[in-house]
């Protein structure tokens, strides 16, 4: 896995080139130009050309550059990969695969990318992220997560997943009636478990009501508690919220530093655990603290 921040992944329709400059400057960890659901069939080819131009001509700053290709079962997917990589591969960091159902879907993209990179002499490996947004994909999430060494993250795609499951939800994917607990907890948890099996990141679903930043933050914090490392954004206003939620707080960093220091002192005197402010700290706590400090260091480098 590459050490890339994915606190915020901003979706931008590749057809809407008037949005590109704002997207490039909004501070998202990753921006992906979408060739799939947000682009009407009649302008798929035209939008692909706009994405290629944007990858080559726009200064994306610190944001990773990605495209979401059309589904493997469509007539556009093959050309999406070949044309974008051939014409803009040097400026492309990640390809996002939608609606993955089985591990072989990831394998197919991996093989084609390998051939293109060899043919074009690219001095880099283009990475992959995969959307889990079909019930079959969720059932096969563990196999999908380990299908390619290119794979850096699984994304929970709640929109198409709602349709695939037949869930009765509103346009913000909230259940149309009383439901005990978190409606999407099972799917979210299965995606994060699959990602952790593979040692990769998990990115939470989009939140369509982009004017409701409090609701977006609530969703983001719930996913972060499960272990998600970032969230999809469908509007630049959501980016700063995601970046804050998925960054360690000053208090978390201070506690991590205190726990590591106390444990090292105890370790030097032959003890394998120590009390810190009345709470036991052992080797497991140290590993958790080190993960917090490593993430903070990654953010500071960015």
TrEMBL record:
Keywords: Lyase, Magnesium, Metal-binding. Its cofactor is Mg(2+). Substrate binds at residues 68, 133. InterPro entries: Aldolase/citrate-lyase_domain, Citrate_lyase_beta/mcl1/mcl2, Pyrv/PenolPyrv_kinase-like_dom, Pyrv_kinase-like_dom_sf. One of its GO terms (molecular function) is magnesium ion binding. Mg(2+) binds at residues 133, 160. Residues 9-236 form the HpcH/HpaI aldolase/citrate lyase domain. It holds the Pfam family HpcH_HpaI. Its EC number is 4.1.3.24. This is L-malyl-CoA/beta-methylmalyl-CoA lyase.
